[in-house]
Amino acid sequence: MSDREHPLSRWFGERKIVRLMLLAALLALGVIHFQWLIEGVAVLWRIARPIIVGGCIAYILEIVVKRLEKYFAPNSKNKWILKSRRCICILLASVLVLGIIVLLIFTVIPGLKDAFKVLSRELPNYFTQLKTWALEKTETIQPVHDYVLELELDWTSVQDRVINWAMNGVVNGGLLSSTVSVISAVTGQVANFLISVIFAIFLLVSKAELQSQFLHVLQASVEQKKRSIIQHVLETSNRCFSGFIVGQTLNGLILGILTWLGMRIFGMPYALMVGVLSGTASLIPIIGGYIGAALGTFLVFTQNPSLALWFLLFIVVLQNIQGNLLYPRLVGNSVGLPGIWVLAAVSVGGGLGGIGGMLIAVPMTATGYALLKEWVQKRNASEPDGELPAPQEASKAPPTKAAKK
User: Fold this and answer.
1) What is the spatial distance between Cα 196 and Cα 209, in angstroms, rounded to a whole number?
2) Is the pTM of this model over 0.70?
3) Domain range for residue 320?
4) Where are the alpha helices (H) located in 78-223, listed in sequence order?
5) What are phi and psi for residue 69, nearest 5 degrees?
6) SS3 of residue 342 by DSSP
7) Does some domain include residue 362?
8) Is 100 helix (H, G, I), strand (E, B) or coil?
């Protein structure tokens, strides 16, 4: 009996056909009931969001905890220190991250509040000065001169319109329908955040146990070859994600310090707050620098309009230096992703998930890029000659008749 006629071969072949048919049926159901599928995913996301957010918090804190463990009694043989070192490092990392968040809040919000107060007080004067300048420049252009002359700014009306637009947007968006709904929404968000933090702490404390359980389950359910592939993919993902987080954080910290120092040297207002804003905004790949520059220019303009242009020139030069010298070394080397793919990842991730999508898309793309690069290198190494054939030069001149002979 041949292999094709063997019952086991026929049974395995039938199983493969059944799997393909089931997969096709699931895809067809997903396309037909796509709206139900989206609603189901949204419900699952609402249920699992505290757990997912807790996992993200734990992953970020673990990066800090690892570095603290290297410096907190690394060579100690005391049993009490060995048992309590991880808990102490988790506590220190949590306090450090919480302190940074509180610093950002109490540094940025009061400054923005003062800036809007100054803007609301000085905007009519700015408008009057701008109108006077425009009238002087358009004296020879009568239609434009008449149009500028008729322009008036009722700042009270503008403020009322902005407030009404904001309140209507909030109410119509379903975020604010009554005092009870506001309290319940805030309470729900706080409760979800506390659940996420508690879950993150449990993950950090039980990391070794959970990792051991995962490896045992993987070993019992997956064969050796596939298990090695899964572990390699997870290690590559961890390297890209942790490298991206560390690189972006260092890049933002250095940019913020340089912005603060430069503004202090040139005597510009809001130096500390603009430095914090620039460093924080630079955590967002590609567009973060533009956001920081726009916010900084706005804040400087509210205090001294003549300095706003000089600040914009300063921040553009600084961000060019940072983008060409610091960013490739801090983020590019750790992630290993060319600039064109960073831009593509940011564009796609921003379209799918906003700022969060941008932050996740870059390390995910870097992981796929690293795995694809390894696969290509292995395939090229398996060539008979061990090397790819050299490309033919199109610019070579055709052989002469003598050469042909």
Assistant:
1) 20
2) no
3) 233-380
4) 79-137, 142-150, 155-172, 179-205, 207-221
5) -65, -25
6) helix
7) yes
8) helix
